[in-house]
From TrEMBL:
It is an enzyme of class 2 (transferase). GO terms for molecular function: ATP binding; GTP binding; GTPase activity; sulfate adenylyltransferase (ATP) activity. It comes from the Bacteria. Residues 1-20, 446-467 are annotated as: Disordered. PROSITE patterns: G_TR_1, G_TR_2. This is sulfate adenylyltransferase. One of its GO terms (biological process) is sulfur compound metabolic process. Its EC number is 2.7.7.4. It comes from Goodfellowiella coeruleoviolacea. Residues 20-236 form the Tr-type G domain.
Length: 467
C-alpha cells in the first residue's frame, strides 16, 4: 500500500485497488488538538507509509530528542510550516486499505479555518472533527460543525483525542459525546450520521487498533468506521450533469466528421440513447456514444472523464451543460446564494465580479447582502454592510447571462460556483446556490445527502471547479 501527499494541489483521480470504494474525508479541529498526529497515525497503522518517509521521521524525531517517532511529521511536510509551527494550508493525502481507498483533506486549525474548511470539505463525504479530551467541545468545534453542515458534508465523526491525558475516563468522553451530539443534531444531523470515538492519536488507541484502555467503548475504531460507513447514494438516482470542457473536432482524414464533447460527468450517469438537453440553448438530442481513450463505454457515472458524441449536430461550445432532459437544472440570471468570502478586501453590495460555474464564466453583480452568519451565536445578522474575510453570508447574484444551476443541497457540484475578481482573476468567494445559513433558531434543514455519488476528482471543487 502506498500513500501520496500534496499540499494545496489537486491530486489526480486515485486508483482504487481491486475496485474498492473511495471515501473522501476532511479533518478539522483547533490548533494542537492533534490532527496531524491522528492522520500520521492512520497512515502509519494502515502501513500506508513508505519506508523512506518513515526513516526520515525516525531521524527527525531522534534529532529532537524524542524517544518515540513524532507521527505528525509524516503529515506536516512543509518546511516553512514546521518553522512556523503551524499547518498552513490544506494538504491532500491518498491512502488505501484492502477494504476502501481514501482521499483525505487535512485542514489546519488556525484562524483561516473557514476558508480552509470550505476548501477541504467542499467535496468531502465525511469529516473527522477533533477535540482535545481535556477541553471538550469548544467554540471552534461548534463553528466547524456549522460550516460542515452548510457545506452539506453528510457525516461527521467527533474524535475525542488525547483520551490518554484524561486517564481514559469514560465520564469525560460521555459528557463530550453528549454535548457534541446535541449540537450536531441541532444543525440537522441525525444520530445515524454521527459517530463519537475516544482516541489517542499519540498512543494509537481506537484509531486503527481497538484499545484495551477503553473497555467501556463498544463502538468501532476510527478506521473501522471509515471503512464501513455507507458512501453516498446510487449515482443513477441523480440527474445527469455534464459541463462541456472541450469540443473535439479533429477534421482529419481519419475522422472528417467527428464531433465530440469532452468533460467530466459532474453528477448522475449517462448511457448511449439517453435523452439530454443542452443548456443554456435548450436543444434536445440523444447521446449516441461515449468515447474514452480506451474505447467506448456502455455507461459513465459521476467522476468519469469521457467524450460524448450526440445523435444530432448541434451548435455546442465549451461552457455549455449537457443535462438529463427529464430533470434539467433551472436557468437563472438572478438567484440567492450563500457565499464564503475568501478575500482580504470586503464584499459590498454592487460589486462587479465574474461568476465561474462549471466550465462557464460570466460577468455578474452582487446585489444586496441580505444576512451574515454570526458564527459566535450560530445566528444570522440581517442587512450587513459588508462581508469580510472568512465571513459567510446570503447574497443576491445577478449574472449577465443565465446559468444552468442546481440547488446546492440537491447537487453539491453543480450547485456551487466561484466568485472571481474581474481585474486579476483571483478567487474572491465560494458560493452555494440556495443553501440557507446553518443558523440554529430556524432549525436548518439537515445537510444535503448529496446527489453526487462519486464526487469528481477535483478536490477543491468549490475553489477551483475545473478549467
Ligand atoms: N498525550 C497525547 N498527546 C497528543 C495526542 N495527539 C497529539 N498529541 C500531541 O499534541 C500536540 C499537537 O499535535 P499536532 O498533531 O501537531 O496538532 P495539530 O492539531 O495537527 O496542530 P496543527 O499543526 O496546528 O494543525 C503534539 O505535541 C502531539 O504530540 C494524544 O492522543 N495524546
Amino acid at each position: 500500500m502506498e500513500s501520496t501527499s500534496s499540499t494545496s494541489q489537486t491530486p489526480g483521480e486515485p486508483e482504487t485497488p481491486g475496485g474498492t470504494q473511495l471515501l473522501r474525508l476532511a479533518t478539522a479541529g483547533s490548533v494542537d488538538d492533534g490532527k496531524s498526529t491522528l492522520v500520521g497515525r492512520l497512515l502509519y497503522d494502515t502501513k500506508s507509509v513508505l519506508a523512506d518517509q518513515l526513516d526520515a521521521v525516525h531521524r527527525a524525531s531522534v534529532d529532537r530528542g524524542l524517544s518515540t517517532p513524532d507521527l505528525s511529521l509524516l503529515v506536516d511536510g512543509l518546511r516553512s510550516e514546521r518553522e512556523q509551527g503551524i499547518t498552513i494550508d490544506v494538504a491532500y493525502r491518498y491512502f488505501a486499505t484492502p477494504r476502501r481507498s481514501f482521499v483525505l483533506a487535512d485542514t489546519p486549525g488556525h484562524v483561516q479555518y473557514t476558508r480552509n474548511t470550505v476548501t477541504g470539505a467542499s467535496t468531502a463525504q465525511l469529516a473527522v472533527l477533533l477535540v482535545d479530551a481535556r477541553k471538550g467541545v469548544v467554540e471552534q468545534t461548534r463553528r466547524h460543525a456549522a460550516v460542515l453542515a452548510l457545506l452539506g458534508v453528510p457525516r461527521l465523526v467527533l474524535a475525542v483525542n488525547k483520551i490518554d491525558l484524561v486517564g481514559y475516563d469514560q465520564s469525560v468522553f460521555a459528557r463530550i459525546a453528549k454535548e457534541f451530539t446535541a449540537h450536531a443534531t441541532a444543525l440537522g444531523y441525525t444520530e445515524a450520521d454521527l459517530l463519537t470515538v475516544p482516541v489517542s492519536a499519540l498512543v494509537g488507541d481506537n484509531v486503527v487498533e481497538r484499545s484495551a484502555h477503553t473497555p467501556w467503548y463498544a463502538g468501532p475504531t476510527l478506521l473501522e468506521h471509515l471503512e464501513t460507513v455507507p458512501v453516498e447514494a446510487d449515482p443513477h438516482d441523480a440527474p445527469l450533469r455534464f459541463p462541456v470542457q472541450y469540443v473535439i473536432r479533429p477534421r482529419t482524414a481519419a475522422y472528417p466528421d467527428y464531433r465530440g464533447y469532452a468533460g467530466q460527468v459532474a453528477a448522475g450517469s449517462v448511457a448511449p440513447g439517453a435523452e439530454v438537453v443542452v443548456l443554456p440553448a435548450g436543444l434536445r438530442t440523444r447521446v449516441a456514444r461515449i468515447d474514452t481513450p480506451d474505447g467506448e463505454l456502455a455507461e459513465a457515472v459521476a467522476g468519469r472523464s469521457v467524450t460524448l458524441v450526440l445523435a444530432d449536430e448541434l451548435d455546442i461550445s465549451r461552457g455549455d451543460l449537457i443535462a438529463a432532459a427529464d430533470r434539467p437544472p433551472r436557468l437563472a440570471d438572478d438567484f440567492d446564494a450563500t457565499v464564503c468570502w475568501l478575500a482580504d478586501r470586503p464584499l459590498r453590495a454592487g460589486a462587479r465580479v465574474l461568476v465561474k460555474h462549471g466550465a462557464r464564466t460570466v460577468p455578474a453583480i452582487i446585489g444586496e447582502l441580505s444576512s451574515r452568519f454570526d458564527e459566535q451565536n450560530l445566528s444570522s445578522v440581517d442587512g450587513p454592510d459588508q462581508l469580510a474575510l472568512n465571513d459567510i453570508g446570503r447574497v443576491r447574484v445577478r449574472t449577465a447571462e443565465p446559468l444552468p444551476i442546481d440547488d446546492y443541497r440537491s447537487s453539491r457540484r453543480t450547485g456551487a460556483f466561484l466568485v472571481i475578481d474581474q481585474a486579476d482573476g483571483t478567487t474572491l468567494a465560494a458560493g452555494l446556490v440556495g443553501a440557507p445559513l446553518p443558523v440554529l433558531e430556524t432549525g436548518v434543514a439537515r445537510p444535503a445527502a448529496s446527489a453526487d455519488p462519486e464526487l469528481p476528482s477535483d478536490e477543491r471543487a468549490l475553489v477551483s471547479p475545473g478549467p
